[in-house]
């Protein structure tokens, strides 16, 4: 007896079910040999950006540059297996630097090994959060953060990252808690004459070169600037002559597996930081993934994307790496270089590994100020001003919402800023339901259906009937407002009211508080001789009312499939009704 194609043996997962979580293997099984040349070339081109970016973002995160390369090699390999996007590039990112250093700097207290353990532990937490969320199909959660909130958060992160790199660009360091005190300490240091002219010249020169080269298509601006700064530093021996800080030789060899052991006292901040990293990295990755999926005319499962991102973070956490995310600067490089599949990232990872084994001293003269310039250039790219201007013109309150989110990050720091952003997102989400739009409706000549009488002052109302529309779910926060507005509509009716019909199509849910309110409202209206009815209520909402024991109280006859039918039912009974005094 043969086994049907695609079926597994008893007790064994079907191959298709297993392969669903390994998109990289699925791609490999259908790999076109003609893609290989493109993937290899794109991977080598990508490496020229992966190395300086990985080192720079690691330095900006408060750990050694070598760990940024470790956090580039391992995630690229893990994502190639578990990630659904064919050309997405993962690695250390400027958007995460502020979050990582906010946790690492105060806890590590200058101990580099402790800093690495803390950053790796954050990566493990972030990876586990993403994997669990992906398996639980929670890929939609990032959609709760609106564009204004995302803009405000990213502008705040960009400001924080830029601020953290300015002292390194000027050739000194500052010790201060919080962005505002950091600004004060930086200004005082400049006024005290602590600026190192050679360091500032190299850093500013590198930054200007990056920004200018970005304007030229197909020119790897970061690579050109970093190579130029390294050659200048080596040729003039600036480290020995003027004390220019440089990267120094990198440790030879590949990262070894290591458990990120931390103390109990570090657990809470690491957990908070890891969850914050998970939220930010997946928000960025999901947006970038959707953009490139649209360009390549493919579909990407957001839940699998979360699993892929989680697997990459989890893997790097056990190989002395740091939290990672997708890269909006390196992914376009891979695309422009002709990347076809995840093999591009694998080639990039192998190339970096060869560099660490064969030529670890190649970057020893790379100036620290040049790395700061790379991070500052990336931070400048994070700022979003164009859409903020559009928000200011078309929706002023959302503009100020974005500004408030920016201020939360800029004043309190990255992790409290994320908490503020999430809180603002929840408040924004609840506000429309808390204080929703509602309307009393009437007939408008020449227009079908029933419409808001405030929009159509000439709308005709039916004597003794109030048609009331409520444009939100009914829940505890707006239940009392609903009751007040229904009673107000009854009081403001030009004729004594006999029926009030709630147009309930927009009501997508009810809870216990609102169902109890409906029962109390019905009692109050019945005492005044008014019948409370509903039209166009969805079946799931009716099911809830049945479960709460409220549906039977009203009776099936008070629920009408359409407003027209509710009006017809009223007109049939209206002559038999006596006016309410």
Helix content: 55-70%
In terms of per-residue confidence, which ranges show pLDDT below 50 for 5 or more consecutive residues? 1-15, 576-581
Largest sheet: 6 strands, mixed
The Rg value, from CA coordinates, equals: 31 Å
- Tell me, briefly, the overall form: elongated
Strand content: 5-15%
- Extended strand count: 8
The chain-level structural class is alpha/beta
**How large is the count of helical segments?**
24
Q: Terminal Cα separation, in Å?
A: 84 Å
Mean pLDDT: 86
How would you characterize the overall build of this protein?
This protein is α/β, with parallel strands linked by helices and 581 residues long. It has two domains: 15-427, no CATH class; 436-576, Transcription Regulator spoIIAA (2-Layer Sandwich). The protein has 24 helices and eight strands. It has helices spanning 15-19, 23-29, 36-60, 65-82, 94-108, 112-135, 147-170, 179-191, 197-213, 221-235, 238-242, 264-296, 302-317, 330-336, 343-358, 368-382, 386-394, 396-412, 414-434, 479-491, 512-527, 539-547, 551-554, 563-573, and strands spanning 90-91, 325-326, 438-444, 447-452, 465-470, 499-503, 531-535, 559-560. Helix 21 links the parallel strand 6 and strand 7 (531-535). It is elongated and about 100 Å long. 46% of the residues are buried. Residues 1-15 and 576-581 have low confidence and may be disordered.
What descriptive keywords fit this protein?
about 575 residues; alpha/beta; Transcription Regulator spoIIAA; 2 domains; six-stranded mixed β-sheet; disordered C terminus
């Amino acid at each position: 007896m043969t086994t049907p194609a695609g079926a597994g043996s008893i007790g064994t997962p079907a191959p298709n079910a297993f392969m669903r979580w390994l998109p990289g293997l699925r791609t490999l099984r259908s790999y076109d040999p003609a893609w290989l040349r493109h993937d290899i070339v794109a991977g080598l081109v990508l490496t020229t950006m992966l190395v300086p970016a990985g080192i720079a973002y690691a330095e900006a995160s408060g750990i050694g540059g070598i760990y940024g390369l470790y956090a580039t090699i391992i995630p690229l390999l893990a994502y190639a297996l578990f990630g659904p996007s064919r050309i997405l590039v993962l690695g250390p990112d400027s958007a995460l630097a502020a979050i990582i250093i906010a946790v690492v700097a105060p806890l590590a207290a200058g101990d580099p090994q402790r800093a690495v353990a803390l950053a790796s532990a954050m990566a493990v937490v972030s990876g586990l959060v993403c994997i669990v969320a992906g398996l639980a199909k929670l890929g939609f959660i990032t959609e709760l953060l609106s564009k204004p909130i995302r803009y405000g958060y990213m502008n705040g992160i960009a400001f924080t990252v830029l601020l953290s790199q300015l002292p390194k660009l000027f050739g000194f360091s500052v010790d201060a808690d919080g962005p505002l005190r950091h600004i004060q300490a930086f200004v005082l240091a400049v006024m005290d004459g602590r600026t190192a002219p050679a360091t500032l010249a190299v850093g500013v020169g590198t930054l200007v070169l990056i920004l200018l080269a970005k304007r030229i298509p197909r020119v790897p601006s970061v690579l050109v600037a970093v190579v130029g700064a390294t050659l200048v530093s080596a040729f003039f021996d600036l480290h020995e002559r003027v004390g220019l800080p440089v990267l120094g030789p990198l440790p030879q060899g590949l990262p070894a597996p290591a458990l990120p052991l931390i103390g109990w006292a570090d657990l809470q901040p690491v957990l908070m930081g890891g969850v914050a990293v998970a939220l930010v990295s997946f928000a960025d990755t999901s947006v970038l993934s959707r953009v490139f999926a649209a360009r390549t005319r493919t579909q990407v499962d957001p839940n699998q994307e979360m699993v892929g991102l989680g697997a990459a973070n989890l893997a790097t956490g056990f190989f002395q790496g740091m939290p990672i995310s997708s890269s909006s600067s390196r992914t376009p490089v891979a695309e422009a270089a002709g990347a076809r599949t995840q093999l591009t990232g694998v080639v990039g990872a192998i190339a970096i590994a060869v560099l660490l084994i064969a030529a670890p001293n190649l970057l020893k003269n790379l100036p620290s100020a040049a790395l700061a310039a790379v991070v500052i250039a990336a931070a400048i790219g994070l700022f979003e001003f164009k859409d903020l201007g559009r928000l200011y013109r078309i929706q002023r309150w959302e503009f100020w919402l974005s500004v408030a989110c920016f201020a939360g990050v800029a004043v309190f720091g990255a992790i409290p800023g994320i908490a503020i952003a999430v809180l603002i997102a929840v408040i924004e989400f609840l506000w429309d339901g808390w204080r929703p739009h509602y309307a009393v409706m009437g007939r408008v000549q020449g227009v079908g259906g029933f419409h808001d009488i405030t929009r159509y002052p000439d709308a005709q109302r039916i004597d003794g009937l109030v048609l009331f529309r409520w444009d939100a779910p009914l829940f505890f926060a707006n239940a009392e407002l609903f009751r007040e507005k229904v009673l107000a509509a009854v009081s403001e009716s030009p004729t004594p009211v006999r029926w009030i019909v709630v147009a309930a199509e927009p009501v997508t849910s009810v809870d216990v508080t609102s169902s109890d309110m409906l029962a109390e409202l019905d009692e109050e209206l019945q005492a005044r001789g008014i019948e409370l009815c509903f039209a166009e209520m969805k079946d799931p909402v009716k099911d809830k009312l049945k479960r709460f024991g409220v549906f039977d109280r009203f009776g099936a006859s008070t629920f009408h499939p359409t407003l027209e039918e509710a009006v017809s039912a009223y007109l049939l009974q209206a002559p038999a009704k006596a006016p309410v005094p």
